[in-house]
Amino acid sequence: MFRMLIFAKRRQDLSYDDFVAGYESSHVSLVDALTRSGLHKEMRAYCRNYLRHDHALSTPGRHVDFDLVVEAEFACAEDFALTMRNIAGDDEALDRVNADFDRLLDPSRPRHVVVDEQDSVRH
Q1: pTM here?
Q2: What is the rounded distance in angstroms from the CA atom of residue 73 to the CA atom of residue 96?
Q3: How far apart are CA 16 and CA 67, in angstroms?
Q4: d(CA 117, CA 76)
């Protein structure tokens, strides 16, 4: 298993609702289309977590400077690497991905980290 967390900030001119709607309608559809085309390897999990900075239980402050945490899980690191090479090597796909990101995300803020998951929930 290979899991990556992606931290992204929405563009300043997008409201929370417009950002969520835009990401869910366009970017999720784009990932689905790229997966169907074979450029994007099938993910085992693709969870999008939209942060509610305005919620009463959210900690205020500047330490959390992103609006979205994506959990992307692939069967193995090689599947992720192949996906990145495939998209980078296909000008049309790369243009579509970049245009979608430009429309939704602040380009100065993306961060990625690979994680090892430990689950301790007991039933």
Answers
A1: 0.85
A2: 22
A3: 8
A4: 14
Q: What type of residue sits at position 93?
A: A
Residue 55, CA atoms < 13 Å, CB-side half-sphere: 9
Give 19's Cβ-side CA count (13 Å radius).
Answer: 22
pLDDT tens by residue, 16-70: 999 999 999 999 999 999 999 999 999 999 999 999 988 888 887 767 889 999 9
Q: Is 73:27 a contact under the CB 8 Å cutoff?
A: no
Other beta carbons within 10 Å of 54: 8
Answer yes or no: are the C-beta atoms of 45 and 109 closer than 8 Å.
Answer: no
Closest CA to 73 of 96, 37, 48: 48
